[in-house]
Amino acid sequence: MVVSLLITSTNNNHSPLFDRGDFFQNMRTILFIVAISAFLFSCKKAEIENYKEWGFEKPSHFPEPHYKFENNTQTYDRFDLGRELFYDPILSLDSTISCAKCHAQTHGFADHNVNFSLGVNNTVGKRNSPALSNLAWYPNFMWDGGINHIETFSFAPITNPLEMHETMTNVVAKLNASAHYKEKFKKAYGSETVTDQKLLKALAQFMAMMISAESKYDNYVLGKTTFTSAEENGLQLFKTHCASCHTEPLTSSFGFANNGLDSDFTNDLGRGLVTQDPNDNGKFRIPSLRNVALTYPYMHDGRFFTLNQVLDHYSNGIVQSSTLATSLGTGFNFTTQEKQDLITFLNTLTDQNYLANPFLSEKKK
Ligand code: HEC
Ligand code: HEC
């Protein structure tokens, strides 16, 4: 725009009646426009630059991510749209429940202290809302691994009658009726028509950016800090007893295991529901332990409220059954000191930068 103005104004100045007054008038207008454009550009740039993690970047101590934005090239506008959708109850049937209602940033994106979350009309869910982080590394989602792609994922909570209880057709219609969203979809995906595909992809852009990699544990791994002797001892116990499933550095192998909670699985078959194989009954997707100090209650049904209870379980609460992971045996018989050290170590997985990252928070309007 500035360029075309420049051309028109120079053309005008070819006139034999060239007037210095006109010239300066034109120059002033041009300079004014240039200044305004530069100002607007710098505002947007400043906003982006403030996000020190902006742009997907693999933390150097992490393996390659599973999701690489194939067919959904990362852009700031797409991420920003995904963020707004994550915090907007418009995705639910009666516009009362957003994703964030059950996935609160201050709790590592788990729910606020409840074992089962409430969906639309206060219907009680059947499983505990898991904490969310490092989702680009997940090969599968849900406690039973029933969903395997981050770009199709959000279909599940939106349409689940126990969660948002909405239809994709309705959500798309609601968004298409919003001038604000039409504009945002246009910026993000080039056309203002909202489709379910674009909606799911935008949410995937936001979820893939939920990277937690700046805890004390991470800084220790990177050699930027040292552990106290209790933390160090806890880490060694963790490596011996836990890391075969809660594999470092993501703290999950993303495999499935029965960690000895029950011998009767009729309440929830877990992985068996997906594979229909009785050998998978009672197995659940191994959860990540990042920010675990804040993501209570624990396990697929939220049965434990404290890490102490979790360690009592692994110490001497293991329930025998045919699908129990053999590595758990009859429990680890930890001493009180060992439990304490393990908890001290688990606390190093808390990542304050993640929990307070303004770019993962609801945007101030
Ligand atoms: C009413 C509460 C509730 C709402 C609303 C909700 N979730 Fe969830 N979320 C859950 C529960 C419960 C699970 C575990 C479900 C299961 O395993 O069967 C879950 C699982 C997930 C997972 C998988 C995590 C893992 O460890 O595999 C992701 C990702 C996720 N939700 C993102 C979202 C997004 C995005 C939205 C909004 C579109 C959303 N959730 C809305 C409760 C909720
Ligand atoms: C054989 C694999 C295996 C081993 C070994 C193992 N876990 Fe787990 N862990 C799991 C599985 C599977 C779950 C989820 C079980 C469920 O909810 O039904 C889990 C859940 C947890 C949770 C709850 C997380 C949440 O967000 O709800 C914590 C905390 C935990 N484990 C800590 C540990 C610690 C500490 C150790 C070592 C003392 C350990 N685990 C050893 C497989 C394992």
Describe, in short, the structure shown.
The chain has 365 residues and is mainly alpha-helical. Helix content is 41%, strand content 1%.
| Level-2 CATH architecture of the largest domain | Orthogonal Bundle
Structural class by helix and strand composition: mainly alpha
Put simply, the count of helices is 15
The tally of domains stands at 2
Strand content: under 5%
Largest sheet: 2 strands, antiparallel
Anisotropy-based shape: globular
Main sheet: strand order = 1-2
CATH-defined topology of the largest domain: Cytochrome Bc1 Complex, Chain D, domain 2
The string of secondary-structure elements, in order, is: HHHHHHHHHHHEHEHHH
Spell out which ligands are present.
heme C
Helix percentage range: 40-55%
Rg (C-alpha, Å): 26 Å
Query: Which stretches are low in confidence, meaning pLDDT under 50 for 5 or more residues running?
Result: 1-18
Distance between the termini: 29 Å
SSE layout and pairings?
Layout (H helix, E strand, L loop, with lengths): L1 H11 L7 H31 L25 H11 L12 H4 L47 H4 L1 H5 L8 H9 L2 H11 L6 H13 L7 H6 L7 H13 L14 E2 L13 H5 L8 E2 L21 H10 L19 H12 L4 H4 L10
Antiparallel strand pairs: 1-2
Helix pairs in contact: 1-2, 3-8, 3-9, 11-14, 13-14
The site of one heme C (HEC) has 26 residues, from helix 4, helix 6 and helix 9.
Task: Describe the model.
It is a single chain. This protein has 365 residues and is mainly alpha-helical. The longest helix is centred in the N-terminal third of the chain and has 31 residues, at 20-50. It has two domains: 76-212, Cytochrome c-like domain (Cytochrome Bc1 Complex, Chain D, domain 2); 216-349, Cytochrome c-like domain (Cytochrome Bc1 Complex, Chain D, domain 2, Orthogonal Bundle), CATH 1.10.760.10. It is built from 15 helices and two strands. A two-stranded antiparallel ribbon has the order 1-2. The site of one heme C (HEC) has 24 residues, from helix 13.
